[in-house]
Amino acid sequence: MTVLTDLDLDPGIHSWIARLEQLAPAIPGIADPDPAVQRIAARELSDRLAVDFTLPIPDGIEIDDMEIAGPGGSLRMRRYRPRAADGLVPSQLWLHGGGFYAGTIDEVLNDRLCARRALDSGVQVFSLEYRLAPEHPYPAPVLDAVAALEALIDEAERFGVDPERLGIGGNSAGAAIAASTALRLRDAEGPSLCHVDLEVPPLAMRRVGESAVDYAIGFGLDQLEQIVALYTGPAGPADANISPLDVVDLGGLPSTLIMAAEHDPLRDSGVQYAERLRHAGVPVELYIGAGHLHGTPGLTASFDGAREWQELHAGHLARAYDTRTARLAG
Q1: What mean pLDDT is reported for the chain?
Q2: Does pTM surpass 0.85?
Q3: Within a domain: residue 330?
Q4: 91, 172, 180, 302: which is the annotated catalytic residue?
Q5: Domain of 250?
Q6: Average pLDDT estimate for 135-154
Q7: In this structure, what CATH number is given to the domain that contains residue 192?
Q8: Is residue 166 part of a domain?
Q9: Annotated catalytic, 294?
Q10: Structural domain count, the chain
């Protein structure tokens, strides 16, 4: 088993860890057993870290909030649209991270990363405020994502979406939800997606591979089983798609990008999913960020590796969504 102090990490990551360890103990509720209390504290910690360690929202992006009808009531989405965009453009539904029970589109980190990725890739991004566990266990967030995709297609003119170039993506828990959503749409012959984008994804509701053993303690996912229990709910998983890696047939899915961190207990989950997708004939690209921990791809103000990660991410999206042919003004 690897200990965090054994790793030769970038100084920018060390600074982030030191700041996290300084801030966390002073935030009320950060270790509260009530997920509703803990998510408020986690938001405060995330925002305070992002202010110092993530590059600000760049110029050239228009940001607006909108609402759509969802299966449990109205859903908020935040749109990041390149100011130069004209007409119907390639678009991605994005699902934030947060362990299934936390996270929000209002987080500073989410705002800053989505805005910069939209500008750098030319892909319009819609970040969805999906319902959270344990109040709303699986498949609630998947159903929210399906509703959002259907709205983006049905009201393409309103949202400025090219329905032929619409995809889904997510970070961490959001990536798992995105992968489950793609499977649900395939099985139900729902809206056709052009791409799936999975960043540091947990693709099985269990520990997977050597990375889960090597980085079991002290790497941010020590309580994985408890988190999974919140997501699945007391009745257990509603269907097999909750754990995409364990789905028998992965054929017929859209082309997929998987971005995994080297020192992440979830790394082998992403690696094995990429292997299974390839075996099923799905075009897939796997990137493993050298020197990264699960939470370091967002450290764009302090870590060269995070800036490289985000540049590669945006470049892949530009190719996958073919933004060269999008109608851009100027």
Answers
A1: 95
A2: yes
A3: no
A4: 172
A5: 4-325
A6: 98
A7: 3.40.50.1820
A8: yes
A9: yes
A10: 1
